[in-house]
Amino acid sequence: MNIFHVSAECYPIAKVGGLADVVGALPKYQTLLQQKVKVVVPKYKTSYVTQRKFKNVFKGNLKLGQKTYPFTVDTDPTNELGYELYLIDIPPFFGSANVYEWGQDAERFVTFQIAFLNWLIESKQFPDIIHIHDHHTGLIPFMLKFAHAYKSLSRVPTFLTIHNAQYHGDFGFEKLYLLPEFEHNKIGFLEWNGHINPLASAIKCAWQVSTVSPSYLEEMSFAANGLEDLLRHERPKSIGVLNGIDVDVWNPQSDSFLVQNYSTRSFKKGKEANKAALCEQFNLDPTKPLFAFIGRLVGEKGADLLPHMCSIVLNDFHQQVNILILGSGDPEVESHLQKLMPIYKGNYNAYIGYNEQVSHQIYAGADFLLMPSRVEPCGLNQMYALRYGTVPIVRRTGGLKDTIIDIGDFGYGICHDQASVEDVVYSIGRAIGLYKDEENMDKVIKTGMKINHSWEKVANTYLEVYKELIVKTADSW
Ligand code: ADP
Ligand code: GLC
Question: What is the CATH code of the structural domain delimited by 267-451?
Answer without folding.
Answer: 3.40.50.2000
